[in-house]
Specification:
Layout (H helix, E strand, L loop, with lengths): L5 H22 L5 H27 L2 H4 L5 H5 L17 H25 L3 H30 L1
Helix pairs in contact: 1-2, 2-5, 2-6, 5-6
């Protein structure tokens, strides 16, 4: 997918969360019971995030979605794989969480950059909302995973 506009970024982010959920699902059988529980939590979390981001694209004004943002991804590519390369197989719940959080940090870096480049107030507001959502969800995800470690 070529990413040029806010619409593309939202679609890419939805795909990012869906692909992450899919990869976790693919790798789940090859892990310990404790890791499987963490992965099931993360799968549900990623599916929920994909739905939330989709609601942003549905509610946004059409003009908001057509703003062009090309240069960031040319200089800082974020790879969205079409298949799972087994990144979560044979990992502890902490290692899985670290990989997922690192991937989310890349999305936050993209949104932060785009927010800094935005000029129009409603574009800034949309990106502020997306940033807040991603940051809140990382905190929520980390808290949920910490509960697994307390078990």
């Amino acid at each position: 997918m070529k990413i040029e506009s806010v619409r593309d970024i939202l679609e890419w982010t939805i795909d990012f969360h869906k692909q992450l959920a899919s990869c976790l699902t693919h790798c789940e059988p090859n892990n310990s019971e404790r890791s499987k529980m963490a992965m099931q939590y993360l799968i549900a979390h990623e599916e929920h995030l994909a739905a939330l981001i989709k609601s942003f694209s549905v509610k946004a004004e059409p003009g908001e979605l057509e703003t062009l943002f090309i240069e960031y991804l040319e200089n800082n590519p974020i790879v969205l794989h079409d298949h799972c390369d087994g990144a979560f197989e044979q990992k502890t719940d902490s290692e899985i969480a670290a990989v997922v959080i690192e991937q989310h940090q890349q999305v936050i870096a993209l949104y932060t950059y785009l927010r800094e480049q935005a000029v129009i107030p409603h574009h800034k507001e949309l990106l502020d909302n997306l940033l807040a959502l991603e940051n809140q969800e990382i905190v929520r995800m980390a808290q949920g995973l910490n509960r697994f470690q307390d078990m």
